[in-house]
């Protein structure tokens, strides 16, 4: 509703009528406007030059021969100014100086156009020269792309200096004619330039609001996405993210014919820890362990996640059994080295972990669920054999059975 109600613009878009946004937005607008203007001037400069060529051709056809030299000699300079501005506009490094050189060029062009009539005698020539003033003003206000204050300053200052030159070095200025052309077209040009800038500012404001809204939405979406993958207590990846990663890495290792290792980590006697120190301290302990385990993600593809409760899981694509048991052993030692007191852990008096390790090469068959199951069995064995250690899952040995009729079967 607010956007469609024109009365609300005054509130929603502060400073548009006065051509001045609040400070930060104003700075952004000026940069944006400058780049837009110079971008379009890169092409327009040559179009303006073309228009000037038309004017010069007209002058050549109509001007009395006696003053032809003065005419062409002067207008060549206007052409040179436009050409110079067009060439400068091709250099991107000079983009931010566009208002400066285009404004100064406009000032010079208006000065020259305004001064010429003061050096001519014939009424026809004077009229023709005043037409060129109109040309210059229309181009500066409507085509160069200067902001309203810059265009206004360039045109009025150029007019004043041109008038000064004509008065002091030429025959003076026909004021009636000057008002009909210079003053009238200046006021019209200012009006057009002002309304164009208001329109441009509204457009810019709406675009920047839209962009800010988009950025906010994007940030929110990224945050939600991160939260949906993160465990809130430990900030490690959560179970859902782990399941996706396991599936992805399983298929990747299958394609690359590489092994995939996982380690299931369980905190020893954590119920007793909670009972003794309280649940909040238990949370603290899980956070400390998570931080330590997090250091064991070394390469892209490695993942450390909270599997649930006091269980963590580590995923290592491309890691074989030798490397996996080496990592598991280091993991147990690192947790022990943390030295978190656990009064009800009879073996060490400190928090320890048990680790179940399983390694499979997906290209040899099986599923990722089997891999998980094997890690779980290995963890069970680690617990059974006294905790604070690791076990690698070993498939049960193949037993050869011989049936009554003498055929061999494999189990
Ligand atoms: N503080 C805290 N405790 C948790 C959290 N999640 C699970 N637990 C506790 O972890 C304990 C796990 O206990 P059990 O599964 O019996 O195992 P355990 O006592 O560690 O014994 P073993 O695994 O056999 O060494 C339970 O008491 C849970 O309440 C949690 O987020 N914070």
TrEMBL record:
Q: What EC number(s) has UniProt assigned to this enzyme? A: 2.7.7.65
GO CC terms on record?
plasma membrane
**Presence of the UniProt keyword Transmembrane in the record:** yes
Annotated region (Disordered), positions in chain: 386-411
Q: Which GO terms describe its biological process?
A: cell adhesion involved in single-species biofilm formation; negative regulation of bacterial-type flagellum-dependent cell motility
The cofactors named for this UniProt entry are:
Mg(2+)
Q: In the record, what lineage is assigned to the organism producing the protein?
A: Bacteria, Pseudomonadati, Pseudomonadota, Gammaproteobacteria, Oceanospirillales
What top-tier enzyme class does this entry carry? Answer: transferase
Q: Name one GO molecular function term.
A: diguanylate cyclase activity
Q: What is this protein called?
A: diguanylate cyclase
Q: Where does the GGDEF domain start and stop, copy by copy?
A: 258-395
Q: Which SUPFAM superfamilies is this protein grouped with?
A: Nucleotide cyclase (SSF55073)
Q: Which residues form the signal peptide?
A: none
Q: Which UniProt keywords apply?
A: Membrane, Transmembrane, Transmembrane helix
* Recorded catalytic activity of this chain's protein: 2 GTP = 3',3'-c-di-GMP + 2 diphosphate
Q: Which InterPro entries match?
A: Diguanylate_Cyclase, GGDEF_dom, Nucleotide_cyclase, Rev_trsase/Diguanyl_cyclase
Regions crossing the membrane: 45-63, 69-88, 100-120, 126-144, 151-169
């Amino acid at each position: 509703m607010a956007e469609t109600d024109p009365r609300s613009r005054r509130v929603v878009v502060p400073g548009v009528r006065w051509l001045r946004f609040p400070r930060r937005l104003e700075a952004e607008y000026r940069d944006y406007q400058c780049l837009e203007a110079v971008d379009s001037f890169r092409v327009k400069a040559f179009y303006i030059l073309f228009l000037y060529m038309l004017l010069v051709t007209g002058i050549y056809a109509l001007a009395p021969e006696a003053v032809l030299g003065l005419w062409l000699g002067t207008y060549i300079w206007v052409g040179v100014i436009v050409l110079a501005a067009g060439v400068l506009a091709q250099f991107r490094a000079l983009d931010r100086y566009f208002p400066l050189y285009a404004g100064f060029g406009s000032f010079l062009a208006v000065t020259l156009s305004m001064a010429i009539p003061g050096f001519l005698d014939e009424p026809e020539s004077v009229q023709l020269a005043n037409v060129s003033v109109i040309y210059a003003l229309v181009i500066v206000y409507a085509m160069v792309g200067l902001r309203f204050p810059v265009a206004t300053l360039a045109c009025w200052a150029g007019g004043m200096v041109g008038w000064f030159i004509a008065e002091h070095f030429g025959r003076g200025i026909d004021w009636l004619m000057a008002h009909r052309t210079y003053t009238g077209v200046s006021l019209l040009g200012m009006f057009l330039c002002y309304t164009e800038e208001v329109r441009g500012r509204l457009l810019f404001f709406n675009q920047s609001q839209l962009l800010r809204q988009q950025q906010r939405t994007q940030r929110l979406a990224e945050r939600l996405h991160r939260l949906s993958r993160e465990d809130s207590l430990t900030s490690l990846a959560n179970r859902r993210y782990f399941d996706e990663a396991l599936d992805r890495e399983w298929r990747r290792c299958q394609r690359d014919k590489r092994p995939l290792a996982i380690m299931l980590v369980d905190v020893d006697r954590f119920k007793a820890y909670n009972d003794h120190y309280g649940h909040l301290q238990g949370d603290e302990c899980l956070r400390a362990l998570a931080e330590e385990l997090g250091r064991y993600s070394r390469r892209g593809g490695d993942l450390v996640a909270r599997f649930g409760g006091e269980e963590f899981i580590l995923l290592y694509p491309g890691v074989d059994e030798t490397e996996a048991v080496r990592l598991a052993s280091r993991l147990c030692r690192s947790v022990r080295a943390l030295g978190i007191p656990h009064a009800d852990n009879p073996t060490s008096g400190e928090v320890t972990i048990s680790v179940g390790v399983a390694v499979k090469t997906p290209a040899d068959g099986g599923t990722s669920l089997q891999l998980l199951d094997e890690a779980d069995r290995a963890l069970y064995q680690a617990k059974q054999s006294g905790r604070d250690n690791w076990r690698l899952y070993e498939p049960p040995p193949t037993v050869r059975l011989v049936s009554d009729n003498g055929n061999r079967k494999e189990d």
